[in-house]
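Researcher:
Attend to C-alpha cell order:
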Amino acid sequence: MDIAHLKSMNKTIGAKQTLKNIAKGTVNYVFVGHDSDESVVEPIRTACEAQGIPVNDKHTMDDLGRACRIKVRATAVGILR
C-alpha cells in the first residue's frame, strides 16, 4: 500500500490511537515512521504481528504527517477496515 492513498482513507493517526484500534480489531494495515522511537513503535509491531497485520516502515514521520494532511509528524498511521 502506498502513502498517497492515506488522504482519502479512514485511518487513525498517532501511536496511542493506532495501538488502541489494533486491539479493537479495526485496523488492517499500519504505517510506522522508520525514524520513530523504537520504544514507542515496538508495542505496535508486536500487536500487529500477533494479529497478522502488515506493517510498512519505509517512510519518515514527516512523510506520514504530510500524507495525512496534518501539520505535525506522525509516528504511526493505522488503516481502518
